[in-house]
Write a structure and sequence with these properties.
six-stranded mixed β-sheet; 7 helices; globular; Deoxyribonuclease I, Chain A; alpha+beta
């Protein structure tokens, strides 16, 4: 039954997103819920690998910022996660050419809750990946993971810095203060470090509804919160929460606005979810407690 859900959802998604937009690509952020780590409250196991891959394909995205990736399993000294390896193998099963396959880079710092970038090699080139330390508020939580991204292919001009974030969880006063400090220190770091003028930030911010002051410091440096009204939390007690978000620098807004003009303002950013309560329960038990957020971007824009 679940396989039918994913296939039918993919068909529906494709029918609504088959615009003539050869220069438009989709970028996603997704918290995968303790992938490969037994947190005591999830059922995702190797038998669900196919469904992880189905959902990734359902989004239509070819570049992902992923959060909550499990412990590293060293292969020739490289940071790896066996669960993510299995998902990538499933994604690549029907792709004959090596250059067209999926791969990923994984941070080697954040222990049980690592950050990763998953991408198709024929469409994106990632380099200069590193953990950054914007300030003291990041000591006891996940430090941001930064990469340089270059679009590949005919007519591809886009190059930008992509920062993957996973901020402090929970709704208590201390956690809210920490998240606000996270953004204040990240904003200062962005001003004091030499990056390309095109910067995209995506991830699980854990910001609750109404907590708009948390990212005011980003607005102060002309970064834009890219908004979608759909919830991203799967759990019923957090139905209104949009934890997973994108922020963009003023420079990359040109590429985002160009995509918005192509696909429409109602489609340029989208939460990929199903509204069937039974399917939502199954998804939360077997896949994740977050839905992915997908952003359209024009890769043909000149810098």
């Amino acid at each position: 039954m679940k396989k039918i859900f994913f296939i039918s959802a993919f068909i529906i998604s494709f029918s609504f997103n088959s615009y003539p937009q050869e220069n438009i690509r989709k970028i996603a952020t997704w918290n995968m819920k303790w992938l490969g780590t037994n947190s005591g409250n999830q059922l995702d196991a190797f038998e669900n690998i196919e469904h992880y891959a189905d959902y990734i394909l359902l989004t239509g995205a070819t570049l992902f910022a992923l959060q909550e990736i499990g412990p590293t399993h060293s292969v020739a000294g490289e940071p790896k996660c066996s669960y993510l390896d299995k998902i990538v193998d499933e994604l690549n099963q029907s792709i004959p050419g090596e250059l067209e396959k999926w791969t990923y880079v994984l941070d080697n710092f954040n222990k049980q809750q690592r950050l990763a970038f998953l991408f198709k090699k024929d469409l994106w080139e990632l380099s200069n990946f590193r953990i950054i330390s914007p300030g003291s508020s990041f000591i006891y939580i996940r430090k941001p993971f930064l990469v340089t991204v270059k679009a590949k292919g005919d007519n591809a001009e886009l190059e930008f810095n992509f920062i993957n974030i996973h901020l402090k969880a929970f709704d208590d006063a201390g956690s809210r203060t920490t998240r606000k400090n996270n953004f204040t220190q990240l904003s200062a770091w962005l001003q004091n470090n030499t990056l390309d003028e095109d910067v995209l930030i995506g991830g699980d911010t854990n910001i609750y509804f109404g907590e708009t002051d948390a990212y005011q410091s980003m607005s102060d440096i002309n970064y834009k919160y890219l908004y979608d009204a759909e919830r991203t939390s799967v759990y019923s007690d957090l139905l209104g929460e949009r934890f997973d978000r994108f922020f963009s620098s003023a420079g990359i807004n040109n590429e985002i606005e160009s995509a918005k003009n192509s696909v429409g303002s109602g489609n340029y950013i989208d939460v990929i979810k199903d509204n069937d309560p039974e399917e939502i329960i199954w998804f939360s038990q077997n896949i994740s407690d977050h839905f992915a957020v997908v952003l359209n971007i024009d890769v043909s824009r000149e810098q």
